[in-house]
Amino acid sequence: MINPNFIFDNKELVLNKLSNKSYDLNYKKFSDLYLLRKESIQKLEELKSELNKFNKKITKEKRKPTEDELKEIKGFSNSSKEAEALKKKIEIDLNNLLLEIPNLHHDSVPVGSDETYNEEIKKVGEIKEYNFKIKDHSTLGKNLNLFDLEAAAKITGSRFNLYKGLGAKLERGLINFMLDEHSKKDYIEIFPPFICNEESFIGTGNLPKFEEDLFKIEGTKNYLIPTAEVPLTNIHSNEIIDPTKLPIKYVAYSACFRSEAGSYGKDVKGLIRQHQFNKIELVKITDEFSSYDELEKLTQDACSILDQLELPYRVVTLSTGDMSFSSAKTYDIEVWIPSEGKYREISSCSNFESFQSRRANIKYKVNNKMNYAHTINGSGLAVGRTLVAILENFQNSDGTITVPKALRPYLNNIEIIS
Predict the structure, then answer these.
(1) Which among 30, 123, 248, 406 could disulfide-bond with 308, CB atoms 3.0 to 4.6 Å apart, if both were Cys?
(2) Do 104 and 14 touch, CB atoms closer than 8 A?
(3) 137-164: per-residue pLDDT in tens?
(4) Model confidence pLDDT, tens digit, residues 49-76
């Protein structure tokens, strides 16, 4: 959520930045509500002040109020209640409008309407040249009996997977490897609930705008999480954090559940885009001054997993038209997928500045001044897509897979999957 005072005081800047995210703010509606709220607060304060003066006068004179004075006191009280009710209604309307407004992008973000305006920051690793016809991960996984998409479809439906044998061990090995590596960098490991309440989703910006992307549990106000970002960020909702404890760094494994609304027909084959998948999530809560330094560190922490697995990848800065609703700046880490001949996203690392903390009410106090924390997160990494990249990049001419050296201790030192 953007500070409404900032919107009101910086109309042209805000409208320009929101247009870069293809959002057209009804500024008149916003300013009308903003000014009405201001007037309602002022009116309520005036009524309370008058009532307070009246009561003080009677107390000072050490007497009981007359019948006419009691009627006047009741009038003040009723007017105050009406003013309070009006203020609350205006605040609800203003808050509902603010919840629909995307975050403002950082000045360093490239301006553009879509992914073609993204800026490449770096490429790492060499793309292998194969002297044989390469196979895609679906074919490799089926031939090696690593997973069974057909069985998962029978059990549940399309876009689900069932890992088997060494496939299950490889997925689990990747999870443990990533958790161990991030723990070495002082991230606190959390095993969070995979279900969160409505308030938590509002806090991270998933609700109310993106409800269709979520799986809601019927008869409740709870949803399955699309990422561990939701529970991790909300650990500190409605809290005032000791600034000496910042930055707070969390890492968590979770299953993730996404309806993939609007994506039907895309990536229907294999493990790239599924309704349920595994992911390691990194979340940081920082002060406002160090958040961009911490974003760079978190992005490098995510990259370090690919470095150790010796997978080729690149890092890009997302343009205004390609970044998420809540983000102020995002780096996408994209791993090379040989069968597609292109890089595919395996992590998005974002700084939300105070956008989420205003919604979730996460603050820290310095010199008796309350400040909203900054929140940062990124995948460290998407496990299924990492498995896809390993299968395809480390495939051999005989259809076997060479296990990356860093991962072998997690697979009983198996070197070749055959």
Answers:
(1) 406
(2) yes
(3) 999 999 999 999 999 999 999 999 999 9
(4) 777 776 777 777 676 767 776 777 677 6
CA triple 212-98-293, angle to 5 deg = 90
With a cut of 80, say whether residue 234 has pLDDT above it: yes
Active site residues: 258, 273, 345, 348, 385
Burial class (CB in 10 A: 0-12, 13-18, 19+), 344: middle
d(CA 280, CA 337): 20
What's the Rg (C-alpha) of the chain? 27
Q: By the 8 A CB rule, do 157 and 171 touch? A: no
**Whole-angstrom distance, CA of residue 273 vs CA of residue 344:** 11
> What integer pLDDT is reported at residue 78 of this predicted model?
79
Asked if residues 193 and 229 have their Cβ atoms less than 8 Å apart, the reply is no
Residue in the block written with tokens 């979340």: 283
| Residues 6+ positions from 376 with CB-CB distance below 8 Å | 283, 284, 285, 286, 291, 294, 295, 298, 349, 350, 351, 352
∠ Cα 353 357 361 (to 5°): 160
Confidence of residue 243 (pLDDT cuts 50, 70, 90): very high
The pair of three-digit structure tokens given for residue 409, joined into one six-digit string = 């201790």
Q: Taking all residues of the chain, what is their mean pLDDT, rounded to a whole number?
A: 94
Report which DSSP code applies to 33.
Answer: H
Both tokens assigned to 275? 């309704």
